[in-house]
Target: D-xylose reductase [NAD(P)H]
Amino acid sequence: MSIKLNSGYEMPIVGFGCWKVSKDTCAEQIYNAVKVGYRLFDGAMDYGNEKEVGQGLRKAIEDGLVTRKELFVVSKLWNNFHDPKNVPIALNKVLEDLGFDYIDLFLIHFPIAFKFVPIEEKYPPGFYCGDGENFHYEDVPLLDTWKALEQLTKDGKVRSIGISNFNGGLIYDLLRGAEIKPAVLQIEHHPYLQQPNLVEFVQSKGIAITAYSSFGPQSFLELNHSKALNCPKLFDHASIKTIADAHKRSPAQVLLRWATQRNIAVIPKSNNPDRLLQNLEVNDFDLTKEEIEEISKLEQGLRFNDPWTWNNIPIFA
Model:
């Protein structure tokens, strides 16, 4: 099952998320995911594991498990590379690490421009801006960065371009100056943070949505995130468990199907081979209207990934 993007390409509706995949096991995990049937791999410069992702994918290609054309490879432009002159530098590093001559989708990771950090100084730079733990910013309008991404598609190095962690106002503004419309918006999306107005607006503009952290707090437990540690886990929630039992499915499968049934792509990850396959097999059953409404009642506006906690950056303020 896939989503037809406004760029003309097909994006699988279920993919493998590469965030927090350890470099030590990453290549093997990626290879196994291909073997199970995953074709979309969602990575980013900031994840620090794109060399290993590339190793796993190239081995799968070399072993005849898949062809490059069958893969949908995603990466994201990190905050330190927003200046138009630095966007090609960033993409060339991504392509070098992956070992490919193009990627299928390149997203602006956050609508935030940090001060440029040369790759040889620190890569990925994370929150480092050349001055210890102090944040420094560049005055780069988002449209300028977007125009640089548009050029990458014209150069043939990127097939589709998109955005991540943008609010509705920023998208509304970007669309007024964009020559090429974003193909995808990636957002935090789970029953505790449903963002229905944003979803409706973006889909009405022909922009596909990818949800990250579909399991809500589960994705942030290993980071010792205070909000995640102090809220009910969705896997254990009575409503989710009741729906899962009714369909003879796992809570994870219900959470993923809740998104894909509304044409929202998902990018879960798992180290467990059985769960890896279960996460992929979520489109052969349907939730009832009543079940979807029951899940809708879980909305709390509970956001786990908020740049305000970094340095009072008001993306979602």
About this structure: Residues 2-215+264-270 form a domain with the TIM Barrel fold (CATH 3.20.20.100). The first strand starts at residue 2 and ends at 4.
